[in-house]
Amino acid sequence: MTESATQSQLTEVLETVKAIQSQLTELTLEVKVGQAEIREKFNTMEAKIEAVRLEVQNNREQLVELGKRQGSTDNRLWALLVALFLMVAGLLAKITLFDKV
To answer: What is the pTM of this model?
Structure first.
């Protein structure tokens, strides 16, 4: 039942195995190149994300600073309005209470 392989068949099998090994080497090289490209793109994207993260942080800090400035401006505006109200009230009191006819 066992068949003996001829030299030409063995040579053909050996050549097939060598071709498969060569293809495997080529595929391994392609995978390594692909991995390097992916790693490079990932690093580039990571750098871009970090830059965006820094920009967001700067914008957040600017918003906090603007909020503080706006609070200060609001306080000055209220102080001006209260001063104007007191001045008008004082003027009205002077006119009504100390009117010289």
So the answer is: 0.53
Encoded tokens for 76: 């000055």
Q: Is the pLDDT of residue 4 over 80?
A: no
- Cβ-count burial 55-67 (b if 16+ within 10 Å, e if not): eeeeeeeeeeeee
Angle at CA 55, nearest 5°, toward 51 and 56?
115
Give, in order, the Cα–Cα distances in Å from 84 to each of 38, 40, 81. 67, 65, 5
CA distance 37 to 43: 10
74, pLDDT greater than 50: yes
Say how far apart CA 56 and CA 33 lie, in whole Å.
34
- Give me the half-sphere count of Cα atoms (radius 13 Å) on the Cβ side of residue 24: 6
